[in-house]
Amino acid sequence: MKALKDCYDPEIPVSVVDLGLIYKVKIQPVQEKHTGSGHKVEVEMTLTAPGCPAHTQISQQVKERIERMPGVTSASVSVVWSPPWTPDRISQSARQKLGID
């Protein structure tokens, strides 16, 4: 989650973590013949709206950031819509930054 704080929705100056867009991160050890041991990381995330124009850009940014982490051999990102995202998922620090509270 700390690494994903570097990933942002290009229209909102808050990380995907602080926006509450990351629903699940699953880390599995893998042993591959050519690359050796490492970890496969699977992320389930959502977006603020189903028609988000930055859909591909945000999910690709998350995937690339995870793949740069030491020991990660592969990463995948699935965008899910259930449960639907609501502003209640925004962290307190992000609320202050956005002037919501």
Written description of the protein model:
This protein has one domain: 2-Layer Sandwich (GMP Synthetase, Chain A, domain 3). It is built from two helices and three strands; from the N terminus they run E-E-H-E-H. The protein has helices spanning 55-67, 92-98; strands spanning 22-32, 36-45, 72-79. It has a three-stranded mixed β-sheet. Strand 2, helix 1 and strand 3 form a beta-alpha-beta unit.
Provide a concise account of the structure shown.
The protein has 101 residues and is of the alpha+beta class. It has helices at 55-67, 92-98; strands spanning 22-32, 36-45, 72-79.
Descriptive labels:
GMP Synthetase, Chain A, domain 3; 101 residues; 3 strands; 3-stranded mixed sheet; single chain; 20% helix
Question: Would you spell out the secondary-structure blueprint of this structure?
Answer:
Elements lengths: L21 E11 L3 E10 L9 H13 L4 E8 L12 H7 L3
